[in-house]
Amino acid sequence: xxxxxxxxxxxxxxxxxxxxxxxxxxxxxxxxxxxxxxxxxxxxxxxxxxxxxxxxxxxxxxxxxxxxxxxxxxxxxxxxxxxxxxxxxxxxxxxxxxxxxxxxxxxxxxxxxxxxxxxxxxxxxxxxxxxxxxxxxxxxxxxxxxxxxxxxxxxxxxxxxxxxxxxxxxxxxxxxxxxxxxxxxxxxxxxxxxxxxxxxxxxxxxxxxxxxxxxxxxxxxxxxxxxxxxxxxxxxxxxxxxxxxxxxxxxxxxxxxxxxxxxxxxxxxxxxxxxxxxxxxxxxxxxxxxxxxxxxxxxxxxxxxxxxxxxxxxxxxxxxxxxxxxxxxxxxxxxxxxxxxxxxxxxxxxxxxxxxxxxxxxxxxxxxxxxxxxxxxxxxxxxxxxxxxxxxxxxxxxxxxxxxxxxxxxxxxxxxxx
Length: 418
Prior knowledge:
Elements: H1 14-25, H2 34-49, E1 53-57, H3 60-69, E2 77-80, H4 86-94, E3 98-101, H5 113-119, E4 124-130, H6 139-149, E5 153-156, E6 164-165, E7 168-169, E8 176-181, E9 192-197, H7 200-211, H8 218-234, H9 237-254, H10 257-260, H11 285-294, H12 298-316, E10 338-341, H13 345-354, E11 360-361, H14 381-389, E12 390-393, H15 401-416
Parallel strand pairs: 2-3, 2-4, 4-5, 5-8
Antiparallel strand pairs: 1-9, 6-7, 8-9, 10-12, 11-12
């Protein structure tokens, strides 16, 4: 008899919802007090990162759009990883630039510096690096390449808030960095984000554009909070084991598309060359306060995640038929998830589900392969192979070492039976 734990929790702390409720009950959202709370958050994050400026944005992808719009000239190219969510590519295009896909390194899932060096040319307006799954890219090498070519770096640090390279937080190494505070991130506030930079002129231009936008719609934000609350209830262990997991297990074992689609966030990519109107919003006081309260526990949470990663490595290193991410204990990996790569990942997931282990297919594909980006297609075999084989093992802080141990045993049994 098994009692599985969920692969992640959306938010998971009653304090998050209490904070939200207080703002609603005090009629402080969507108006009243926003400037103070938002400004406090911007100053605090900028100080943590070690840069002069922070700017709150409603979503990380909109922050990427704003950064590129004010960083890159129309028609210039942006060298970027194809292994990212499709809407990030849309934001590049909406900003007036052309994406140029640079292949990735299989082990890290991050952009390959050698490919950046090969692809940067006179048309390049920026290089965008994505610190995927919480792992910092090879910023020393990438920064050297871009500095020699006079090309600015945009860091997509949506999944890597708190990761450091040589003591510097990712996001603060390039010209501009963008963080996500969306659901399932290590710091979250119902889909918010942050842009950080030392460039005062860039900050002023982006801030001027943000100033003209309305606050996030109260009704829309309330729906998002309700959605996340439902997710937390469904992943609460007493509910998850007898109900939610059984539904997911049914979908995985019997290929029930209506069930599997629930977690396949990238299953229906849509091309956009303009920014949707509902993206054009400003973060509210509620969201800023929720993020601010979480900043003081970021490093402590990372320590827990790294401990889980260490155990996954100890238990699975040397096993045939699986590729592990690198073990980094120097602060350069926060292990938002623990991605492994296996040849037949659906067979692997079904095995895990049959044995009471809840794991997730990494549903991001290679954007270089998507039909909606046919005009920008390029051959990226490493990204293609990774997109076909990647599975995420849980690392959220309240998951528990006993659950990690159980995952190791079941994964090892699967590998040794093949």
